Amino acid sequence: MDKEITNAEIKKLLSKKLATLRKDSGQTLEATADELNLDLSEYFRILKGQRLPQLRTLLRINKKYGLNMDWWFKELEETAVNEKHFRQKAIEAQLLSLLRKLDLGSQEVVLSLARALVKKAAQENY
């Protein structure tokens, strides 16, 4: 099961990206908030990761900076893929470690079982 992304992680990611956009634009907080039609305090809370922006706010930001929604969230997908890969490698290492502790006959039984499981999985995917 994949790890659930938390609101805190999303807030952190969005605030980091929003801060970079604002800084690179050279605008003040006030000017940026005004241009995005946001109350300064709301913009500040989003900027500091205390609040998630509404969808229409993200759309206004996208329009202002020429972005699309993928730009905001691509790191979340990469993180999930990296965690899945890490988990898979950890399981493979555990299996190999346990397999090495078995005698040859037991290793052959495990190998036969693994082949049967792979064959069954391949048949189910067709």
Could you characterize what this model shows?
InterPro entries: Cro/C1-type_HTH (IPR001387), Lambda_DNA-bd_dom_sf (IPR010982). GO terms for molecular function: DNA binding. This is Helix-turn-helix XRE-family transcriptional regulators. It is a single chain. The chain folds into two domains: 7-67, 434 Repressor (Amino-terminal Domain) (Orthogonal Bundle), CATH 1.10.260; 77-124. The chain has 126 residues and is mainly α. The chain has helices spanning 7-25, 29-35, 40-47, 55-65, 69-100, 104-124. Helices cover 78% and strands 0% of the residues. It contains six helices and no strands.
In short:
By secondary structure, the chain is mostly helical. Helix content is 78%, strand content 0%.
Strand content: under 5%
List the helices and strands in order: HHHHHH
- Major beta sheet, specifics? none
- Rg computed from alpha carbons, rounded to a whole number of angstroms: 24 Å
Layout of strands and helices, then pairs:
Blueprint: H1 7-25, H2 29-35, H3 40-47, H4 55-65, H5 69-100, H6 104-124
Helix pairs in contact: 1-5, 2-3
Question: Which labels suit this protein?
Answer:
mainly alpha; 126 residues; 2 domains; single chain; 434 Repressor (Amino-terminal Domain)
